[in-house]
Specification:
With 349 residues, this protein is an alpha/beta fold. The protein has 13 helices and eleven strands. The strands form two sheets. It has an eight-stranded parallel beta barrel, surrounded by four helices. A two-stranded antiparallel ribbon has the order 2-6. Helix 11 links the parallel strand 8 and strand 9. Helix 3 packs across helix 11 and helix 4 crosses helix 5. The radius of gyration is 19 Å and the shape is globular. It starts with a helix and ends in a 9-residue tail after the last strand. Bound molecules: iron/sulfur cluster. The site of iron/sulfur cluster has 9 residues, from loops. The site of iron/sulfur cluster (SF4) has 9 residues, from loops.
Length: 349
């Protein structure tokens, strides 16, 4: 069997396979974390330079027809529900533009009837007036819907599987369309078939054994790369955060393990976009910046309408990095990174 140091040494020049990744995620590999981190940092600078792409989530609605044990938007939670009107949406877009953002991630709970295609058509007509790069993180849609939204400017779809372990998936998804694990699992195929440029994969760390989920996510990525080689891919490893009605978990992932996971994926896929959200605390985000992360959100609010009016309290989960976008930029510059606000122009895609 190839040793862990050999695997680290060949990363970047030889494509690592799933067995190599399993070794990089092992307990033994944790003893080589400094070498992994140095190699991950080198490969990231080689491929992406000293840059960090910035994006912002824009919450459209907290309506949801699902019950997920870990989420404040779950239908069984008695929180005030709201969906942005198109006037509200203009205000949110204007507030974000003033901060400098040009890349937006539209997020909503999963409520097909009230926040489905008719709503998305209207929302894209508004949002495309303000932003060059529009990504979507909502309920899984049909291929034709993705193709239609692509025509309105949809550039990326993020659809995290949450967990690939059947028993954990069933345990944490209690009611609604999200209980259909296969429909969710096949969503990236439909996104790719619709010709959307980028697909975001990921798992919610804390629902099941993190090693099994990370390896299954890597297998999913390699399957998609083989079948849809024109698509671009990104990956994120959000960790469970406190929320209204949230669960306690025996699978929580500590900071050191998160570092190992991010470094292992950078070695596994040197060109893969790796995203880090404000779920993570400021100090950890600053330490992770050089190690493999290429895309960050900053100044995020997880409640609909929260940018134009930050007194609203309807959040999906508590964020951990409360810094404004300006403050995150300052930190990036301090660490020698150039913040990138815009790297996409639809007409050139
Ligand atoms: S995770 Fe998504 S689908 Fe589940 S309750 Fe929250 S918003 Fe709804």
């Amino acid at each position: 069997m190839t040793g862990i140091r050999d695997i680290i040494a060949k990363a970047g020049s030889t494509r690592l396979d799933i067995d190599d990744l399993a070794q990089l995620l092992s307990k033994e590999a944790a003893q080589h974390i400094e070498l992994m981190a140095a190699t991950a940092a080198r490969l990231t600078r080689q491929r992406f330079g000293h840059t960090m792409r910035l994006f912002i989530p824009l919450y459209l609605s907290n309506l949801c027809a699902n019950d997920c044990t870990y989420c404040g938007f779950s239908m069984s939670n008695a929180i005030k529900r709201t969906t942005l009107s198109m006037d509200d949406l203009h205000k949110e877009c204007q507030a974000l533009k003033q901060q400098g953002f040009d890349s937006v991630l539209l997020v909503a709970g999963e409520h097909e009837r009230k926040v489905g295609m008719p709503y998305f058509r209207q929302a894209f007509a508004v949002v495309s007036q303000y932003f060059s790069h529009i990504a979507l993180e909502v309920q899984p849609l049909a291929k034709d819907d993705y193709a239609e939204l692509r025509g309105y400017g949809l550039a990326a779809v993020y659809v995290y599987q949450e967990t690939y372990q059947r028993s954990a998936y069933d345990k944490h998804h209690l009611r609604g369309n999200k209980t259909d694990m296969q429909w969710r699992l096949q969503t990236p195929d439909r996104v790719a078939a619709a010709g959307v440029d980028k697909i975001g994969l990921g798992v919610l760390l804390g629902l099941a054994d993190w090693r099994e989920d990370a390896l299954d996510c890597a297998r999913h990525l390699r399957y998609l790369q083989q079948h849809y080689w024109r698509s671009r891919y990104s990956m994120a490893f959000p960790r469970l955060r406190p929320c209204a009605g949230g669960i306690n978990s025996e699978h929580l992932v500590d900071d050191k393990t998160l570092v190992q996971l991010i470094c292992a994926f950078r070695l596994f896929e040197p060109d893969l976009e790796l995203t880090l959200s404000t779920r993570e605390p400021a100090m950890l985000r600053d330490h992770l910046m050089p190690l493999g992360i290429t895309h960050m959100s900053a100044g995020s609010k997880t409640q609909p309408g929260g940018y134009a009016d930050d007194t609203i309290a309807l959040e999906q989960f508590a964020t951990s990095d409360p810094r404004s976008a300006k403050q995150v930029c300052k930190a990036l510059l301090t660490y020698g990174f150039e913040p990138i606000w815009k790297d996409w122009q639809r007409e050139f895609a």
